[in-house]
Amino acid sequence: xxxxxxxxxxxxxxxxxxxxxxxxxxxxxxxxxxxxxxxxxxxxxxxxxxxxxxxxxxxxxxxxxxxxxxxxxxxxxxxxxxxxxxxxxxxxxxxxxxxxxxxxxxxxxxxxxxxxxxxxxxxxxxxxxxxxxxxxxxxxxxxxxxxxxxxxxxxxxxxxxxxxxxxxxxxxxxxxxxxxxxxxxxxxxxxxxxxxxxxxxxxxxxxxxxxxxxxxxxxxxxxxxxxxxxxxxxxxxxxxxxxxxxxxxxxxxxxxxxxxxxxxxxxxxxxxxxxxxxxxxxxxxxxxxxxxxxxxxxxxxxxxxxxxxxxxxxxxxxxxxxxxxxxxxxxxxxxxxxxxxxxxxxxxxxxxxxxxxxxxxxxxxxxxxxxxxxxxxxxxxxxxxxxxxxxxxxxxxxxxxxxxxxxxxxxxxxxxxxxxxxxxxxxxxxxxxxxxxxxxxxxxxxxxxxxxxxxxxxxxxxxxxxxxxxxxxxxxxxxxxxxxxxxxxxxxxxxxxxxxxxxxxxxxxxxxxxxxxxxxxxxxxxxxxxxxxxxxxxxxxxxxxxxxxxxxxxxxxxxxxxxxxxxxxxxxxxxxxxxxxxxxxxxxxxxxxxxxxxxxxxxxxxxxxxxxxxxxxxxxxxxxxxxxxxxxxxxxxxxxxxxxxxxxxxxxxxxxxxxxxxxxxxxxxxxxxxxxxxxxxxxxxxxxxxxxxxxxxxxxxxxxxxxxxxxxxxxxxxxxxxxxxxxxxxxxxxxxxxxxxxxxxxxxxxxxxxxxxxxxxxxxxxxxxxxxxxxxxxxxxxxx
Length: 784
Known about the structure:
EC 2.7.11.1; Bulb-type_lectin_dom; disulfide bond; Agglutinin, subunit A; Kinase-like_dom_sf
C-alpha cells in the first residue's frame, strides 16, 4: 500500500502546483547546543586595563570583557563589537564598578568569578555562575553561557538581563529590566520594566527622592496571564501566555538581522525603545555612527505618561519636561529657576530668587511679576481652584498670594499651585497657560544681563560669519559635484514604465550586454536566463530572462508580471532591474545572484551547515510574507521550490521566477480565498532539514523515495534522528528539527482545510505556540 500511495502521490504532485500562502514574522531563537562558538576554557581570565583581548563570539559581533566607564572604573560587560559605538547590552557590576587590575576568571572548578585588584570577590556579582561548568562561550546571539560537560547550559547572561533584550532573549515571569541612571552612568536608575507574576507587563518609576513606585505604562492584566515576553529575530516582541497563546504585541517592527543589529532597551529617560544599526556600508557611503530609533517607543510621550499626586514627574521638582522632535524628553527649568546639578538635570531646579515674604505679602507684590509659559501645566500641586474668572484676575491673585508659586489658567478657570512644583510638562496638546511668579530684577541686574547678552550677540555674529563663509564654500562644492555628475554617461530611459523605477531596454542593448546571449545561467518554464554586464562605470552584472512562447495569453502574463514585480521591493526577493518589450522580444532583466540556486547549494556534494540552512528557510518565509501581505498587490507564488530560490553573495535567500505568480483579486478577502499554509514551503522546509530532494529513486530503502512520506513515518515512529543522522549540527538541535518537521507536515496536508493559517504557522515555527501532533498528510486521499 505504501508503494501504491507513493506512486499516486507523486502523480498528484506533478499535477498540482505547490501554491504557497505563507507568512513569517520572525526568526527562530538559536539553541546554545546548535550554535557554533569558541570555548572559554577553565582557568581563562581577563584583567581590567591590561590590554587583554575580550572573549568574542564566532562572528566577532559580540564581546565579553571589561569596558571602561570614564574615570569611574570598569564594567564587566557584553557589547556590540563591530560598530564604532561599543554599545553595552549586559553588565555584571553596574552598581559597583571594578578598578584597574580587577579580574574575571573561569575558575578550575567551573565558576565565573569577578575579583577586585586585591583578589577579593566584588559584591553583588555572585550570580555570575555556580561551579561545575566545563567551559564558557560568547555566542553570536549576544548570550554568554556556562556549559556542563554534556553541553547543557548551567548559566547564561540572557537569564540575568540589565536594561536590554536582544533577539531570542526573552523576559520570563518575575524578571525585570532596570534603566541606567544616566546615558553614561550604568548604575540602577529610576525606571524599570517588569513582567509581573500576575501576567501584567508594567513600567514603573521611583518617585524621586521618595522610594514609592508608580506604574506609568502597562499592557493590562485583563488580556490574560502573561508567562513570557517573547522577542524574536524579526523585531517582533509580544506577551505569551502559559499555553503559548499570544496575548498582546509590544513591538511589531519587521527587522532583518542579516543587515541590521537590533536591541530593545529601557533607556535612562524611562522609555522602552527598539534600536537598529546597519551592519554594512551601502553604495560606498558610510553609515551614521549612531543607533537609529525605530518609529515605535513605549510610551510615546514620557513627559505626559508620568504624572502622579506624589513624586516629581518625568523630570525633577521645579522643572518641566518637553518632548523634542527626536521623541526624546528634555528637562528644563522655568523662568526664575536654575538646575540643582548641571551634570544631572533630572534632579530638578531651584529658585534663583528670594521667595515672597508671607509676613508682609502686600508690601512685596510690586517686587514680583508674572512670566507666561504656553501649553504648560504642573498637575497635582494646586491648592486652590477658581472658576468664572479671567486671566488678569488669576495673575493678580497669584501675585498677592505668598503661597502661590505658579497659577495655571484655562477656560476661565484658575488653579493656584504651591512649590515645590511637580509633574511639570510643556506639550502642544496642553491648553493651560502657566503664569510663573518670579521676582523682578533690579536695575543693576538688568544692566549686567544686557552687557552679557551683547557679548553673546557679538560672538554669535563672528560664528555666523564663519558659518556663512563655510556655507558658501559648501554650496560651491555642491555645484561642482552636481555639474560634473550631469556629465556622466547615463543609460537612456526608453519609455520607462509609469510609476516604477524600471529601465526599458532595447533588444540590441541586452544582446550586447549578454554577448549575444552566450552564457546561459539556467532554463525555466518560460525560457532561458543569461548572464550579462551593463555598460557604464559600475559594470553592473545582470541576469536576463529571455521569454519564449509569449503569444496570446502569454503577452498578457508578461505585462502583468512586469507591473507587479516592478512594484515589489524586499531583501528576500530578486529585484527586477528592467525589461524589454520590443516587437516579438520580451525579456526581463534582474539583478545577478552570484551564489546560484538553492537547488545546487543543498543538493550538491557537500552539505551546507545547519545554521545557514535555517537562515535560508527564514529568508524564504520573509519574502513570501512580503509577497502575500505587504506589497501593493497580494501575490501567491505557486511554484516554490529550490530551483526558484536564488542566493546572493552572502547566501541570503532570494525568491525568483514570478512567471507563475497569481494575483488575488481586489474584491476577494483572505477569508473568501481560504489562504492556508502552503505545500510548497512545507516540502522546501523538509528539503532544507534533510538536504535531499523530495523525490529520489537512488535511496537505500524503498520507503525513503518520497521525503514527505518518509519524514511522516519517522515522526510517527519517534525516529526523526534518521532524517539527519549524518548531520552532527542538526543532531545537536533535535528539538528544532522536530518542530520544523511537524510544521512542514501540517503545511503539506492534502486536505487544505487542515493546513494551518499563516499566523499559526509563524507561532509554531518560533516556538511561541506548541505544535500539536499532525495527522498523516495523505489521510484526505485515503478517505476519498
